[in-house]
Design goal:
heterotetramer; A alpha/beta (about 260); B mainly alpha (about 290); C mainly alpha (about 300); D alpha/beta (about 400); C: about 300 residues; mainly alpha; ABC transporter involved in vitamin B12 uptake, BtuC; two-stranded antiparallel sheet; two-stranded antiparallel ribbon; D: about 400 residues; Rossmann fold; 2 domains; 7-stranded mixed sheet; 6-stranded mixed sheet; about 45% helix; about 20% strand; globular
Amino acid sequence: MPASPAQLEVRGIGKLFGGLSALEEVSFTAPAGRLLGLIGPNGAGKSTLFNIIAGAFRPSRGAVLLDGRDVTPLGSAGRARMGIGRTFQLATLFHELSAMQNVLQAVLCRAPRRTLAGLLQSEAYRREQQACEARARQVLETLDIDAYWNQRAGGLPLGVRKLLTVAVALATEPRLLLLDEPAAGLSEEEGRRLMARIDATLRGRCTVIVVEHHLKLIQRFCEQVIVLEFGRVIYDGPPAGLKGNTRVVDAYLGHD
Amino acid sequence: MTAALLAQGLVIGLVNGILYVLVALGLTLIYGIVHIVNFAHGEVYMLGAMGIYVLHVAAGWPLPLAMAAVLAASWAAGVAVERAFFRPLRGQWLQLVVASVGISLIAQSLSWVIFGAQEKYVPSYLPGVVQAFGVRIQLERLLAAGVALALVAGLYALVHRTRLGMAMRAIEEDEETARMLGVDSDRVASTTVGLGFLLAALGGALVAPIYSINPGMGLETILMSFIIVIIGGLGSITGTVLAGLLIGILQSIGALAFGAEAATILVFGAMIVVLILRPQGLMGRA
Amino acid sequence: MNAARLVVALVLALLPLLTPTYAQHVAIVVLINAAYTVGVYFMLRMGYLTLGHAGYIALGAYTAALVSTRLGWSPWIGIALAPLVAGAAGWGLGSLTMRLRGIYFSLSVFAFGEIVNATFRAVPALGGPAGVAGLPRPAFAGIALESHLAYYYLVLAAALACGTFLYRLQGTRFGFALLTLRTADEERLAQSIGIDTPRYKAWAFAACCAAAGLMGAVHAHYLRFVGPSIFTFLYSTDLVVFAMVGGLGSFAGPLIGAAVLTALGEQLFSVGYYKSLVYAVILIAIILALPGGLLSLPQRLRRAR
Amino acid sequence: MRRLLLTAGMVLTTSLGVLTAPPALAQKIFKIGNLSPLSGPGAAFGIGIQHGAEMAAEDIGVFQVAGERYKIEVLPYDTVYDPAKTVAALNRALYSDDIKYGFILGAGVHGAILPIIRQSRFFDMFLGAAGKSVTNAENPTVFRFMASSDQLYSTFTAALYQKLGVKRVAFLGPNDDLGKSDVRTLRELIGTLKGQAEFVGEDYFERGAKDFGAPLLRLLALKPDAIDTDAAPTGTVALIAKQARELGYEGYFFSSTAVLEAKPIVDIAGKGADKVIAYRVWSKPPTPLYEQLAERHQKKYGEPALGTVWEAYGATRWVVEAIQKAGTFDTIKVADTLAASSFAGHPFGPASWGAEKTYGARRQIQTPLPASIIRDGKWEPLDVRVGTME
């Protein structure tokens, strides 16, 4: 897989919803290839930040840079093509499509559209098509869910669906991957296995940012942790530093 | 356009508008609870008028009795339709819409067969005309508008003051939770559809003496009602009322100023603009 | 499969030679409706119900009518322009209403159809309430396609063009990507994997409106007449009925639905409301009892045994 | 209920007509198509034609052509006033049910079918008000068995305006080619009256419209003393009269080209129905035949005979007579024979072909025509010295 991990820089991001400010002056850098954890109590602005990085929301202030290139003006589709992939909290998938087709949708976004060639059913087009299908199957294999390839995505068990969302994101060959609570709704054990697999498959291939509630998981897998509270960064450093940091501790223990 | 003409146009528009509202309200209620845009609604309206003709004029029943019978029948029909078609198809919006189209086709074509093509007439409930400030308006229209207004108020009270209303709003907010809180959503659904049908039938019954009656009369009304609920916001009572009056006036003033077709284009144009700028409608929740 | 295709092709090509004129007329109407219905199906497959398809058909038909009568140009020019006009209109509305889905989309298209019809009725230059009469039949190799048989082949060609276009379009990556627009969530996911959903919707709508426009033009030259009383809301609903009755399971569904119901409708002549009555009853029966449509009848029967 | 049976009967006969396809058999039956709206707004006219033709068929019984014996059968085809459906119906009549003679109702649908008629020489017993566009030399097999608008206007309008002292005329007609062409006719005509009356304004309504508030307000602001409702059908005229009176209008209504009945108008408009004027409506039966048919219709179909019944009856009788005279079913030969003939057996009285100067062909029926006015809820004759159309 050619894609090389990208460095993400977030510069002075602010976001206002109506009058309320969800994010203020959020800045941090995720070096290429890093597995970075983003934590914080509910309503701290994690999802907002995610949506801004992914291009679903426009920030009120600040900029998002991928390998030093400003991607702020792009929408989600554009950023996806730039190499920013993401998953959604509630295992969002194309429910009517099979697992295979779900991934295929993502793979095809890397292939040229060439609709005219498709209408003429040119040989080259068909070959590209087959290549993409092979690729999709391969992605399913890497996450070890190829057994389900032809089952309707909507009908799969939650654990598999979670992995499938990752597979879909992965199939776009992201250089930065945003995982929104991948372990949500899973048992601690399942969650750990999931993270382990993600870690195993992605390590070194792309930069990853995980929003997660289970501190344990974060501490176990991430080299860098960012803690948000009330839309501000209150900690940016190695997981080891979390324990000692009083603000983080009472921010957390204060809430849950 | 002279001031007197404008005033007259406004009054006619308002009266027509409030009558549209009566039919549109049923649509919006049903959509709010069952999430179906009921294409058969116009036929209920038509059958309401037809019922009055058959019972009151043809069979010679006294008006109150005929009226009561029509309302009861329409309610029953609503409950039946909900049971037979809407419930089994719940959640499949496409099938629901198309099924309601089918029901409307059946109702209309059967009516052509049974009642025939001859226009039917119902004698005025309240003949006469009132005149004020150079504006003339038929008493029967005022009566119809008055009843409609009262009903709208009553409905508003029902939805916001009664248990049933609470249940309805709960389901509208979030059916799952409502269910968990022990709301019998099936019963509420059939009640709502019954209520919606009753309103439509009443609309027809009130209009019967104002215009003539034929099995095709439902179509124009249903088109109008769609526009109204879309502009007002599917599921919003206040929105429907506002939009109804708005459309009534837009139509009559538009027709006065530019003619009938221009008015039609104006009205549908308004609907598209709303759909583009504010798809959830003026009062609808996004 | 290919053998089957060959048989169908041969039947379509040769049968009319052996059938009486009336059968040819029915065949023409069936093909026209089938082509329209396929367009409706194309949108249904994406999860979008068009309740105003007749509006786009009308755009094509009127384009052909006005080009050949008012401008006096060759009918072929009109037939060539029609899909462009209808497609452009489809693209326009598509990009304006791209935020809409479900019933809201349906009603926006419905409103558009009504506006188109009201406009043609209102503007005398566009035929007004009387419509446009006296369209010539296009000539092929110097021979005007006057006879039913001759015109049948033009209709067949147009229908195949529409059908093949939309069918192959489904097979392309573009067509495949159109399956990701069903719900708001899925659309968000689609964007997150790089699908520019609004543009896709607009183009998809443009494609099936263009097909409708082409067939509309051919339809107009068959009738030699266009008028606001032809392409009404009820026509649009008929098309939806055809698609649903045929079944949304595959591309064959709408074809079957259109063929069966149109041929049937032509038999229920004496009184129009019996036609709609029969249509409606069949529709309801199918929706409640045979969700897969006529398409799923065979395997349903097999399961029954 | 009875209509349910009737229509069911129609369906049956048609499907039978379809099944008994083999020409060898069909020879014994002379099929006349009734291509007209049998459902929807215009249905009353179509059903009237069906009844009129059926009663004529009864009276004709079995007739002989070139040694063969024939019985008449009237096959209904519902066109719902829709040109496309009319084309479909005509195709079926011609090529499936092999019918060469038929009633085709409505000017609006003829734009679509005239090419087919010219091609196939279908014998179109045309009932409808369109002017030169349909009745002309290019359509030798199209005969109009109903007074045309321009005929009615030129026959009555001037004389009546004078008699009733009408000064300001407004027009409120159907929004289709008919209304638009009739308003032209009326304007020209008033133009020729040199100041005796003036045309103050026009407006239109959609077929099946029920609320005329806006157009009426616009017109009444122009203070007319006569409103011409053109071809508005009975129900529409009734509603227009009712609503106009409620808005304070006291003048006349000229239902110039419609086929009107008094009762519904009186039912719905009450006193307001007075001063409604219509042509072609007989306040008392013009002929014994008319009277006899009216009674028979009441008995046979359980409802009063509608306007088109008379025209359809007369047409069927006259055409069959011409076929017998011509000794063939060839529509061109029959057309020539018919055009050269006159007919005594029309319910309205002696009928012939005229208005050649206007139409360039002898294809327009000429019969005695009355003008009547509603007074106290009843038709009364308006005896006027009528002109005729060359």
